[in-house]
Design goal:
Blueprint: H1 2-48, H2 75-78, E1 81-86, E2 92-96, H3 105-118, E3 122-125, E4 128-135, E5 138-145, H4 147-182, H5 184-222, H6 226-252, E6 260-263, H7 264-281, E7 285-290, E8 295-298, H8 300-317, E9 323-331, E10 334-342, H9 348-353, H10 366-369, H11 375-385, E11 389-393, E12 399-407, H12 418-423, H13 434-445, H14 463-469
Parallel strand pairs: 7-9
Antiparallel strand pairs: 1-2, 1-5, 3-4, 4-5, 6-8, 9-10, 10-12, 11-12
Helix pairs in contact: 1-4, 5-6, 6-11, 7-8, 8-11, 13-14
Length: about 475
């Protein structure tokens, strides 16, 4: 949690700084570019008013009111320009290139024809800003050399980008170094909270055990009655809540659990099967669609708990005579577990806060469901520990869908559950290994082979070969 908080702090700071720098540097360079265009258009307008050339400037010349930039006697000598006169069909009538050395008559005519065909009145053609003017004899196009100011603009733009990048890198290093100190008070507070929950949970277990034991003694001496039954129920609920809090604290601490490959399809099917009878007694429809032979690497006990929490939540908050559906399918390189149930109605606020600790959206049914609002928080922690993601959504406001996505292991046609394998119901035969594999299944089913709590897989050879060579160890339930 603290690592995520620190990462978000760094990302938020860098994105904010990037946005500010982009606005400042982008604004400055845009203003610089607009100034270049504005100056060029002013000079072109002055040339256009005098037939594509500068007017004769003397003491009596009446300057247009365009500002001091265009009132310099040096302007005609520091400006490089040329013009081309075309008729209505685009034929060249006149070419003036005496005020520029970088462009000859042929090249000037090529530029003019390109502008004439485009139909635009002004713009850039290569490094030349042009202005199209209609005259009595045809169309005159005046070009102004903007190479020097454009080069300066590009130089300033490049330097500003470089300076911004260096500034971002420097600030990034500073934020990374200082973020640890910034979040340190939060980390200490969170650590104290986690330690308090863990320590308090362990301390509460002792009096709960004593109360439970004393209740049993009273039942033996006085017989069972409603008061003792109520005490037993409440101590059981308190013990469950304490265990859940301790488990959630350990999951959020990201304690490393044993991660092995296990048959996910069988785990989901077996867990879901235990809810079918409950759904039937409550008059609800229970549907199951589990793709076979899907496996994943993780902690099987925790995944069972996650599936159980999602189904229990769907069972509690589905409407009367509602429908509950669980599905497991492959989606690209991941497996997708989906639990959906119909409801009387679900709000966006509930969906947004569903995985928050102790949050319970349906207040009117809190006493009936007998929950603590901590189950989905545990499911989310389990999902994150397995590099998965849990989401909740509702497209119509009447159906809630909780989806859990996990990275999957390979899915093989030879993979099977330990229960089916030990019972001899799944054929792991391939080629010449058929008879030996069947013999090993019979021995496994009769208890002759060594039993283990799960199947041990050797990932580099087919399952049938492992079966024949004795690499696969099975167990009977």
């Amino acid at each position: 949690m603290i690592r995520k908080l620190r990462t978000r702090l760094v990302l938020a700071s860098m994105l904010s700084l990037f946005a500010v720098l982009a606005i400042i540097m982008g604004g400055l360079n845009l203003m610089n570019y607009q100034r270049i265009v504005r100056d060029a258009d002013g000079v072109l307008a002055l040339l256009g008013e005098n037939g594509g050339k500068f007017p004769r400037i003397d003491d009596n010349y009446k300057w247009p009111e365009r500002g001091p930039r265009y009132r310099s006697r040096e302007l005609p000598f520091e400006t490089r320009y040329f013009s081309v006169l075309l008729d209505a069909n685009g034929n060249v009538l006149e070419t003036r290139t005496d005020r520029i050395a970088a462009v000859d008559a042929e090249e000037a005519q090529s530029y003019a024809r390109a502008v004439f065909e485009s139909g635009r009145t002004k713009g850039f053609q290569d490094i030349y800003r042009y202005l199209r003017l209609d005259e009595e004899g045809g169309v005159r196009i005046v070009f102004l050399d903007c190479g020097r100011p454009l080069t300066q603009f590009q130089s300033v733009l490049g330097r500003s980008v470089l300076i911004s990048a260096i500034g971002l890198a420097a600030v990034f290093l500073l934020i990374v170094l200082l973020s640890a100190r910034i979040v340190r008070p939060i980390a200490r507070s969170y650590e104290k909270q986690r330690r308090f929950i863990s320590d308090a949970g362990h301390e509460i277990r002792t009096p709960i055990t004593i109360i439970d034991a004393d209740t049993e003694i009273l039942e033996m001496e006085c017989g069972d009655n409603e008061w003792l039954s109520d005490i037993r129920q409440q101590t059981t609920r308190l013990a469950e809540l304490t265990n859940d809090l301790i488990f959630l604290s350990r999951m959020e601490e990201q304690e490393k659990a044993t991660m092995i490959e296990f048959p996910l399809s069988d785990v989901v099917s077996e867990t879901a099967a235990s809810f079918q009878g409950l759904a039937l007694t409550r008059g609800k429809t229970f549907e199951m669609d589990v793709a076979p032979m899907l496996s994943m690497v993780g902690n099987e006990k925790q995944i069972r708990q996650l599936v159980s929490i999602l189904l229990d939540n769907a069972m509690k908050y589905s409407d009367e005579r509602g429908t509950i559906r669980i599905g497991l399918h492959r989606q690209g390189k991941a497996v997708r577990l989906e639990v959906r149930n119909t409801t009387d109605g679900i709000s966006k606020e509930t969906l947004d806060n569903m995985f928050e600790r102790f949050y319970r959206g349906d207040v009117s049914r809190n006493s009936a469901t007998k929950g603590y609002g901590i189950g989905l928080s545990i499911a989310k922690a389990v999902g994150e520990a397995h590099k998965g993601k849990l989401t909740a959504e509702s497209t119509d406001g009447r159906t809630m869908v909780i989806t859990a996505s996990f990275p999957s292991a390979y899915s093989s046609g030879f993979a099977c559950s330990s229960r089916r394998f030990s019972a001899g119901l799944v054929g792991l035969s391939q080629g010449k290994s058929t008879q030996k594999c069947r013999q090993r299944r019979r021995k496994c089913a009769s208890g002759i082979l060594e039993t283990r709590p799960r199947i041990t897989l050797h990932h580099t050879m087919p399952m049938a070969h492992q079966c024949a060579m004795g690499i696969v160890r099975c167990y009977s339930e």
